[in-house]
Amino acid sequence: MGFDWPDVAPAMDKVIEELQEVKDVYKSNKRAKIEEEVGDLIFATVNIARILDIDPEFAVNYTIDKFIKRFQYIEETAIRKGLNIKNMTLDEMDQLWNEAKNV
Predict the structure, then answer these.
(1) Fewer CB within 10 Å, N side or C side of the chain?
(2) Backbone phi, then psi, for 89, in 5-degree steps?
């Protein structure tokens, strides 16, 4: 059909454009518009995956698994250090998150 980007670069520019549109509208009370713009952003990101021949479902599931493992590391390390995760600051959890990335 010919209605496609010639390569990935303009598709990446489109993601940046769609992200800006989300930034422009997210503080409004216009939920339908926010949903529309978030949907556009997700669609544009999936389009990059398509162009790069990446299965977006596999990529998202891989990231979810990575998140779960890293968060489990935070929980387990907090317990090992005698910390209650509910009382930890975001900075403390982020430090453990960064440790988990190197495990």
Answers:
(1) N
(2) -80, 165
82 burial (CB, 10 Å; 0-12 / 13-18 / 19+) is exposed
Of all helices (H) and strands (E), which one includes residue 42? helix 31-51
Q: What is the pLDDT of residues 11-34, one digit of tens each?
A: 999 999 999 999 999 999 999 999
Place of tokens 């891989």: 62
Separation CA 60–CA 20 (nearest Å): 22
- What pTM did the predictor assign? 0.82
**Long-range contact set of residues 33-39: C-beta below 8 Å, sequence gap at least 24:** none
* Residue 78, C-beta contacts closer than 8 angstroms, at least 6 positions apart: 84, 85, 88, 96
HSE-CB at 46 with a 13 A cutoff on CA atoms is: 10
Q: What is the pLDDT of residues 56-71, one digit of tens each?
A: 999 999 999 999 999 9
Reported in sequence order, the residue ranges of 18-101 that DSSP labels E, i.e. its strands, are none
